From TrEMBL:
GO terms for biological process: methylation. It comes from the Bacteria. Keywords: Methyltransferase, Transferase. It holds the Pfam family Methyltransf_11. It comes from Flavobacterium aquaticum. This is Methyltransferase family protein.
Length: 240
């Protein structure tokens, strides 16, 4: 593991607070992750890295889910501390494995993908979504957040050819698509508060945060409130 283990340990409290204070902000992102999944009885899911286990709000209440994170900052109560190089689960355990925005700080992404596929049952799926290289979200994180978060931000992001040289992984990819889904807020003030906490923007004033979001990501005001443009590259892998 790398410096991000320490960085997330420091960022976890504010990140978690943002997610609890504004539970609807990322609802499209989570709902999108689960589109195409059939929540049949007895299904067992894994979410890794799960942060504070936010996906629970988006799946049927009786669904069995195991939560794991790489950072001690998040690994409390039911959330297990796990390492991406060797997940502490038997092979063929889960019907579906999910990973949302959690892979761009890993030292060895292919190893983590192989681990996720190993613990997925034959016939099951591994779905992950992360930042696409060259998008406004890339600029926002690696430039704006990097400038205004005193711990910095340097993510290694993804594109459609990221796994081209890893034949075993590439052959498991059944779908790879860039999906756009806005973050939702009621007011501009809620938006800046969420961004400040969620991205650890301790060096930026509210007006700098507002301007950064507006200039780099783009904001739309609708009858439902404030929408901030966001989007991720979503991969679906099938375990054959
Ligand atoms: C942006 S959060 C995403 C969490 C959750 N999936 C979500 O969507 O809210 C990134 C997560 O990855 C974990 N993580 C990623 N890379 C890490 C690393 N190198 N060291 C420690 N933790 C890491 C963090 O603990 C954090 O929970």
């Amino acid at each position: 593991m790398n410096d991000y283990q320490i960085i997330f340990q420091k960022r976890a409290t504010d990140y978690h607070f943002a997610m609890q204070k504004f539970p609807e902000a990322r609802k499209h992102e989570f709902n999108n992750l689960f589109s195409g999944i059939h929540f049949e009885n007895n299904i067992h899911l894994l979410d890794v890295p799960s942060g504070g286990g936010y996906l629970r709000n988006y799946i049927p209440k009786n669904t069995k889910v195991t939560l794991g994170d790489f950072s001690e900052g998040f690994a409390i109560d039911e959330i297990q501390l796990v390492t991406p190089e060797k997940l502490p689960f038997e092979s063929n355990t889960f019907d579906a494995v999910f990973s949302l925005s959690g892979m761009h700080h890993l030292d060895d992404v292919p190893q983590f993908v192989r681990e996720c596929l190993r613990v997925t049952k034959t016939g099951g799926s591994f779905t992950f979504a992360d930042v696409k290289k060259g998008t406004n979200v890339d600029t926002f994180l690696n430039e704006f957040v990097n400038t205004y978060n005193s711990l910095g931000h340097k993510g290694d992001f993804f594109n459609e050819t990221s796994f081209e040289t890893f034949a075993d992984i590439q052959s498991s990819i059944s779908n790879c698509q860039y999906k756009e889904y806005p973050f939702l807020f009621t007011t501009i003030s809620e938006m800046t508060t969420f961004f400040k906490l969620f991205f650890g923007l301790d060096k930026a004033s509210d007006s700098i945060i507002h301007k950064g979001i507006e200039d780099i990501l783009g904001i739309k005001t609708t009858s439902k409130g404030i929408e901030v443009n966001w989007g991720l590259l979503c991969f679906q892998l099938k375990k054959e």
